[in-house]
Amino acid sequence: MKAVSGTEMRNLDRRAVEEGGIPGERLMRIAGALAASSVMEYIARLMKFDVFPRNIIVLAGKGNNAGDAFVVAKLLANLGEYNVFLHCAAKEEELQGDALTMFRELPDKIKGRITRGLQKSDLEIPNVLIVDGLLGTGCRGPLREPFASWIRIVNESGHPVVSLDIPSGLDADTGEVAADAITADLTLTMALPKQGMLSEEGIRRCGRIKVLDIGIPARFMDEVTEFTECTTASDIVKYFPREPFDIHKNSRGHLLVIGGSRLYSGAPALAGEAALRTSAGLVTVAIPESAHLFADPPKAMMIRKIPDSCLGFFCEDSKPGIAELMEKADAVVIGPGMGTDPNSLSVLEQALVSGKKVLVDADALNLLAQNPSLAEKISADIVFTPHPGEMRRLAAAFGIDAALSRIEQAKTLASKLCSTVVLKGAHTVVAGRDGEYAVNLSGCPALATAGSGDILSGIIGALLANGQYSAFECARAAVFLHGFTAELAVPIGSRGLIADDLICYIPQAVRKVSVTA
After folding, report:
1. What is the DSSP annotation of 462-474?
2. Phi and psi for 163 in degrees, rounded to 5?
3. Residue 317's CB: how many other CB atoms inside 10 A?
4. How many other CB atoms are found less than 10 A from the CB of residue 142?
5. For residues 343-355, b (16+ Cβ closer than 10 Å) or e, as one string?
6. Which residue, among 332, 328, 336, has the nearest Cα to 382 in the 3D structure?
7. Contact, 374 vs 463, CB < 8 A?
8. What CA–CA distance (Å, rounded) separates 450 from 448?
9. Given a cut of 80, is residue 143 above it in pLDDT?
10. pLDDT for position 207
11. pLDDT at site 186
């Protein structure tokens, strides 16, 4: 899916109306209806976590964003399940076009008690959810009053916030914030993501992002040439097709996870269990013989102790045992918990030259950064999954300018390694060896915990072992699934969640993105 500038999005809206013959009023009704449905879905999920937002405070300006907000307010009020309060920064005579039409359709129970201002005391009530429809994609430059004051009051309230299209105050083109902007927990963006949402400030302000298909003709969006490629749920459905009814474990693929050491024993177990939950048919985890596995792995996971000369790390003596296991595997994950003992280099080299589908993660990446000449021995399209710290070490090792954008860093490393690179972080970047790339839009702070990267390695490894798609496609699909899993685990916040908690949500995430869900 393309992320476009706010300017381009307004052009697409115009073309849909003028060339596509779709009334602007219809687009607004669809946008508002989909947003209202998403708000209700979000409230339902919050309630499962003992958050009960029965008081819905809708904030509206005077443009098309306000029109969407009016539709949301009307639909939620008509349900009769919520107390809906509308705070409108504009008088009726200041509204025009479709926004005015939607305002006039507001039910009397809302229209008769619209508030023109917003005070801190208005938000000092319990069980509140705020719907932000103040400013849309045309917002740029310093904020005028009353918007600046309203935004400050919202951000100080601590209540959950859903923004319509883009958080008010965030520049849709540049991602800049002149003074302040709404900090949303969920942004419901219309038709396509906006490029400003992918900036550092955009990431902080948007929270989770959901794209709503409001009916802009695909042919107009296909003609856009200036964009950032993104991954959303609609982009990965094709990677989870209907499964044959006679499927069996061998046809789902066999993944080998090589990792662990006397320092870190849990990481390979996390990767292995994640692979099983992602539907790998068989998973074998190879750990050094003298390393203790303190984790309690699933009984379905095969644990193999590999000779290690009593070092607690893989070494030259480990290679025969690893070779035997790799022969039976369809794909390999190497690195989780492996440590950076120089003796392990021989096993890393063994994986790189195996010709297998291989994912290199964690300490295996650090070993590669310390020994960049190993890259010359790569014999297949391997997946490398650095987090920002590992990327800095790899960039230094392979002569990549650290001042480049995250997208350009990932693309440059992928080109140098002739492989696929997954640069982890908020809105993870996946880059392929042929220049393709995608910025992931799923995920939340629940992933900011030790072990979540090992889970991602297991998910990617499972898709690689399945063998249906390229390394880039497997990585792109898995990265979205990983982030989506975290979103399902908690609808808001993340404190107290650990990586072990995430694994049980993987099957639910797979079902939700599958064509047969």
Report:
1. HHHHH-SS-HHHH
2. -95, 140
3. 18
4. 9
5. bbbebbbbbbebe
6. 332
7. no
8. 7
9. yes
10. 96
11. 97
- b/e string for 214-237 if b means 16 or more Cβ within 10 A? bebeeebbeeeeebbbbbbbebbe
What domains does the chain contain, in order, with CATH numbers?
2-226 (3.40.50.10260), 244-513 (3.40.1190.20)
> What is the C-alpha to C-alpha distance for residues 420 and 363, in angstroms, rounded to an integer?
18
Across the range 161-169, mean pLDDT stands at 97
407: closest CA among 425, 381, 383, 382? 425
Confidence category of residue 235, pLDDT binned at 50, 70, 90: very high
CA angle at residue 220 from 135 to 97, to 5 degrees?
Answer: 40
Residue carrying structure tokens 């492996």: 338
What is the DSSP track for 331-391?
Answer: EEEE-TT----GGGHHHHHHHHTS-SEEEE-THHHHHHHH-GGGGGG--S--EE---HHHH
Rounded Cα gap, residues 91 and 100, in angstroms: 10
Q: What is the mean pLDDT of residues 36-49?
A: 94
Query: Cis (ω within 30 of 0) for the bond into 146?
Result: yes
| pLDDT grade for 516, boundaries at 50, 70 and 90 | low
- Alpha-carbon radius of gyration of the chain: 25
- What is the rounded average pLDDT of the residues 446-452? 96
Structure tokens at 452: 């979540």
3-state secondary structure of 185: coil
Q: How many CA atoms lie within 13 A of 472 on its CB side?
A: 19
Residue with token string 């025969």 = 320
Cα 211 from Cα 196, distance rounded (Å)? 15
% the chain with pLDDT above 90: 90
Query: Exposed, middle or buried, 245 (CB in 10 Å: 0-12/13-18/19+)?
Result: exposed
In this predicted structure, the answer to whether residue 412 has a pLDDT above a threshold of 60 is: yes
pLDDT digits (tens, 9 = 90+) for 52-67: 999 999 999 999 999 9
Contacts of 495 (CB under 8 A, 6+ apart): none
User: CB atoms < 10 A from the CB of 259, how many?
Assistant: 32
Cβ(484)–Cβ(509) under 8 Å? yes
pLDDT, residue 139, reads 85
Mean pLDDT, rounded, of the chain: 95
What pLDDT band is residue 517 in, cutting at 50, 70 and 90?
A: very low
List Cβ neighbours of 8 (8 Å cut-off, separation of 6 or more). 224, 226, 227
> Where does residue 145 fall: left (phi above 0), alpha (psi -120 to 50 degrees), or beta otherwise?
beta
